[in-house]
DNA sequence: CGATCGTTTGACGGTGCTCAATCACCGTGG
DNA sequence: CCACGGTGATTGAGCACCGTCAAACGATCG
């Protein structure tokens, strides 16, 4: 409870127990559970692979925007698979600072980290109204034995999860703040593509502060970095709406690494219109 | 092959095919495979849990210091479990910069990230002479079905792996370089303890440059940060031998987060010789 | 014993953090 | 309807930290 009280939990604080909080920040069972086949589709399994398997129902939860699906320190009860929506994973330190560790979208697994110690090492908060499949830890082994397809899909998803955190680390490792943001945007773009969305038009579900926390910079720096990327013609930004104007250029720019930072500073010194790969004209909005 | 040629592979380059390279940088089968029970012990399974299970032999490899166990871009053939020694995981960018993503010791899984795409997303290099169990991807499903204990142990290890990368992210997210290094040392200390080693006497297997890469700072900054931690009385350092003099103080210090960076800077201003070990209040006021 | 690599220390310049003020947006309540 | 407080985003100014360049020292291995 000591740990839980640090988080944004509807406890103790009187104001949070009424009004909009109860309406908005809740985790409730969905109207109906979902079929296993839908879960498998989410995890990337082809329908042909599940031929002849039993199709049973999986508990489905509805998580409203702002609600905390997983509480840091809470016991491990369910492993979740995001069906729709977006989540952020975070750790809260004693002084209340929220360290964002990653973002999760459809098909991603949440809460698996808790199995080894029996309690959640991090929290998960919905960034928009979302739905998740809930796989009780106790049922997990049985379900996996009953459905080889589910077993494979989970292995697959965990493998992908591990590969993704490598990408997260790469983002934070970049020297310049603009490069970090560029890597983040390219990463996000790739994931929107995987989800069948447009890779150029991004609707950011997270605040600047969340992005800043993930990238390890101040949130003002994120604002300024957005400004720079816009000025250099890579983006068009309107609050949380981001349109990538030059995805290839952005991918080239994000490769700037330590030891080659001169490429970055060169951008500043030499006119912004000269050095970028292909684009001179400020296609989008002028500063 | 295009990707592989970027790495330190004993191919094409004539110099690497002879002399010390062949002797030192090799991955070879060990003299004999190891029993499954030993693998399960590594992964943290209690012997009692495996009662009545078949004990078969698992291929065991020997990896010499400096050898590359996993090549970025290579096809996924085996999942490895470190039996002894230490590895670093890294991605090599086009310009040759090595981004270290993590370190792995006994009981940790290497190469699982490759399952989802069929090829290694990162390389793994031995930092000392090491041994690893090799679980061929083709045999994996069969072995897991044949041994529920192995199945559970792998799930457990993967969960732990995911929890660990969260810790890595936390390290890189710290503001001040000294805090990052402190977090790294505390992290390392905890893992030495898990492996039955002393949590206070650390023998660093990795270079300053590797640490710097992981923490996202310049390697000179790592040197200077070591100097600061020594000056403040937390450590005693002799090259790669590190003795932690005040583990509790170091743990308190590592909690410094963004938004509370004044704690750090205050350390510099107020005489450096005055503040060190006593550690006034973790989060409270200094001076 | 010599060569190569790793580590340490110094000086300088720049980037990004901190502290602020301002503006836009939203839901609430007058 | 508009005033109001709250949150998030943007922009500016100042300064400290850290990255870069450079050189010296130390360790390791052939």
UniProtKB/TrEMBL annotation, chains A, B:
Q: Which UniProt keywords apply?
A: DNA-binding, Transcription, Transcription regulation
Task: Give the domain of life.
Answer: Bacteria
Check the record and name the Pfam families matching this protein: cNMP_binding, HTH_Crp_2
Residue ranges constituting the Cyclic nucleotide-binding domain according to the UniProt record: 41-124
The protein's name is Transcriptional regulator, Crp/Fnr family
Question: Which Gene Ontology cellular component terms are annotated?
Answer: cytosol
The UniProt transmembrane annotation reads none
In this chain, the stretch annotated as Disordered covers 264-287
Q: Which PANTHER family does this UniProt record tie to the protein?
A: CRP FAMILY TRANSCRIPTIONAL REGULATORY PROTEIN, FUMARATE AND NITRATE REDUCTION REGULATORY PROTEIN
- Residue span(s) of domain HTH crp-type: 175-248
User: Which CDD domains has this protein been placed in?
Assistant: CAP_ED
Give a GO molecular function annotation for the protein.
DNA binding
The organism encoding this protein is Leptothrix cholodnii (strain ATCC 51168 / LMG 8142 / SP-6)
């Amino acid at each position: 409870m000591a740990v839980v009280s640090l988080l944004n939990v509807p406890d103790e604080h009187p104001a949070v127990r009424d009004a909009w909080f109860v309406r908005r920040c809740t985790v409730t069972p969905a109207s109906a559970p979902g079929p296993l086949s839908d879960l498998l589709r989410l995890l990337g399994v082809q329908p042909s692979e599940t031929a002849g398997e039993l199709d049973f129902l999986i508990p489905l939860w509805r998580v409203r925007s702002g609600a905390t699906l997983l509480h840091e320190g809470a016991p491990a009860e369910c492993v979740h698979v995001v069906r729709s929506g977006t989540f952020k994973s975070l750790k809260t330190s004693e002084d209340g600072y929220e360290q964002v560790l990653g973002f999760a979208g459809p098909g991603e697994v949440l809460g698996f980290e808790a199995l080894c110690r029996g309690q959640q090492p991090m929290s998960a908060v919905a960034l928009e109204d979302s739905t998740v499949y809930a796989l009780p830890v106790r049922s997990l082994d049985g379900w996996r034995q009953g459905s080889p397809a589910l077993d494979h899909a989970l292995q697959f998803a965990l493998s992908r999860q591990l590969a993704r955190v490598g990408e997260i680390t790469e983002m934070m490792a970049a020297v310049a703040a603009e490069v970090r943001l560029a890597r983040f945007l390219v990463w996000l773009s790739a994931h929107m593509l995987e989800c069948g969305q447009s890779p150029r038009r991004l609707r950011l579900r997270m605040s600047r502060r969340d992005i800043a926390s993930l990238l390890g910079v101040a949130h003002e720096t994120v604002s300024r970095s957005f400004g720079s990327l816009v000025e250099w013609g890579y983006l068009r930004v309107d609050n949380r709406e981001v349109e990538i104007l030059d995805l290839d250029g952005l991918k080239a720019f994000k490769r700037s690494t330590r030891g080659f930072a001169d490429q970055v500073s060169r951008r500043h010194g030499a006119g912004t219109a000269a050095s970028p790969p292909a684009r001179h004209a400020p296609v989008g909005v002028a500063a």
